[in-house]
Amino acid sequence: MRKLILLLIGVLLSTNFGWSSALTDDYVDIASSFVQEGKYSQAMNYINKALDIERDNILLINMQKDLYKLMGRDDIFLSFDVLSGGDEYLSTAIYYYDQCKYREAKEILNKYIEKMPKSDFAYMLRAKTNLSIDEVPSALRDIKSAQAISNNAEYELVEALILYKSGKYAQCKNILKRLSEDVQIYNVYKYMGLSDFKLGNYKEAVESFDRAILLSDDDKTIMQSYNEAKRLSYGN
User: Are 93 and 124 in contact (CB under 8 A)?
Assistant: First the structure.
């Protein structure tokens, strides 16, 4: 089911439907990029921005529903919808995070979580924020708190990235390998390749890097590890 949802979202987001607003088109393009990176919450944020402009657009509504399903949120009629932009605190935190103002985002998220201690999304966003400022133990605690409330592919990907940053490459790889059965996105294969490289599994690293490059050749940060893995794999 997850594969089908990803396929449908990919088709919808990559198709030019001639939106009534150029701004809607921009928001959908940004959402598409986030979906490709496995950042479903940020994708949802921009789909919601598009819906603020075109509230009755059935295509946007269907994208929103499919993203909720992918994130493990089948019930989109939540009494408190933290992704709709209706909550000032969380919307501001998302804005600061997107602007790389991580300490400002964290300060707001701390207050928000005091108010809404059952918000898995807030814990996940704080985990990513902590990871961005190298507060790795705090990031791991937060993603575990999010997963204890509700779990989905994005949260597992965040956990894997935290484990990678912690130097726990085998644990990171195990999560990503499981995710890759359902979610074929760039970051899954990028970090699976980087983990294998750190573990000395150079042939497997090359295979993962090849898959990552097929999905996106915009990120040049893996090329040094990719070329080195290719060189070392010939000697194994």
Answer: no
